[in-house]
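Retry 2 of 3 after timeout on previous attempt. Resubmitting structure tokens to design endpoint.
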């Protein structure tokens, strides 16, 4: 795909950076973090948790309507805690040793402890969202917990199944990933008192951004630099997961047996390099980028209907950043 000038996430966050710093402070100073048994693993989670993108979307969305309030920041903290808990559980279920170049909680402390810590962080997110005092935001947040859980169940139930289709994949990535982005933007609008029409636009923005984000994530599993992306190439295949690139591969080459053989024999060293090479040498990756870009284009169309502001510009740049990201 055509590259554009590298986008700096720090500049994107500039309109809400002070509030995002407050989110970080609240995450660090949660009462549960002071417990001697939990302090170290929770600090590790916070340090390796990425760019706070979902929290930033909540804050930017809220600030398109009015200056940020304590309730908006609480919503952003709840969203970020929910995301962190999801990552802990994902890594435990997938038996992932590394995330973003750092050891996972499950690898450091064991699967049982990781599940329990994930549960605790989920509980903290639920408690924090109640601090908003907004029943609509709390309801949407609760619905998202069900959607993400359903997405994880769908993903787990389809592992090592080569009979999946792209429609099922899109449903799964909505529930497991895009729904959180959708809720991040939607609740930002809800908390700030935006109109129903504006909330609907923000919701659509978040949905389409989230779908693009996951497709890019799945592309990077094949073509990403392990040092930048923070995990080995083709890790999804090792875990029996079929994503958009591998599903298109099976669709275009129905007689190809490398994936089914890999799944049945488990010989990653023998079969995975062939699969990755075949996908990278085809037009599949470009098709995936086009699909991700289409989602971003739809998201930008939603933004165009909002009044101009620094926050709107940042939300738009975030779409470009998602397409161009390498980690």
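Retry 2 succeeded. Sequence:
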């Amino acid at each position: 795909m055509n590259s554009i000038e590298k986008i700096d996430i720090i500049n994107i966050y500039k309109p809400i950076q002070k509030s995002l710093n407050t989110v970080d402070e609240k995450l660090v100073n949660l009462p549960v973090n002071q417990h001697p048994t939990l302090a170290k693993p929770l600090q590790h989670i916070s340090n390796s948790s990425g760019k706070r993108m979902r929290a930033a979307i909540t804050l930017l969305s809220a600030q398109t309507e009015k200056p940020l309030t304590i309730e908006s920041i609480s919503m952003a903290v709840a969203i970020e805690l929910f995301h962190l808990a999801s990552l802990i559980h994902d890594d435990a279920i997938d038996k992932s040793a590394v995330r973003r170049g750092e050891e996972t909680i499950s690898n450091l402390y064991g699967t049982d402890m990781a599940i329990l810590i994930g549960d605790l962080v989920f509980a903290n997110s639920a408690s924090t969202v109640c601090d908003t005092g907004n029943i609509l935001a709390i309801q949407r947040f609760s619905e998202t917990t069900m959607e993400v859980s359903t997405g994880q169940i769908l993903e787990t139930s389809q592992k090592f199944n080569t009979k999946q289709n792209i429609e099922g994949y899109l449903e799964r990535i909505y529930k497991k990933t895009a729904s959180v982005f959708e809720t991040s933007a939607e609740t930002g609008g809800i908390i700030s008192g935006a109109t129903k029409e504006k909330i609907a636009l923000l919701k659509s923005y978040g949905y389409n951004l989230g779908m693009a984000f996951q497709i890019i994530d799945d592309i990077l599993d094949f073509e990403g630099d392990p040092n930048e992306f923070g995990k080995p190439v083709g890790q999804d295949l090792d875990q029996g997961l079929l994503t958009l690139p591998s599903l298109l591969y099976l669709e275009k080459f129905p007689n190809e047996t490398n994936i089914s053989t890999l799944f049945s024999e488990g010989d990653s060293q023998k079969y995975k390099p062939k699969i990755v090479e075949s996908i990278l040498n085809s037009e599949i990756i470009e098709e995936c980028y086009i699909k991700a870009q289409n989602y971003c284009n739809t998201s930008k169309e939603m933004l165009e209907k909002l009044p101009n502001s620094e926050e709107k510009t940042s939300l738009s740049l975030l779409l470009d950043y998602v397409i161009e990201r390498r980690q």
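Attempt log closed. Residues 9-324 form a domain with the Farnesyl Diphosphate Synthase fold (CATH 1.10.600.10).
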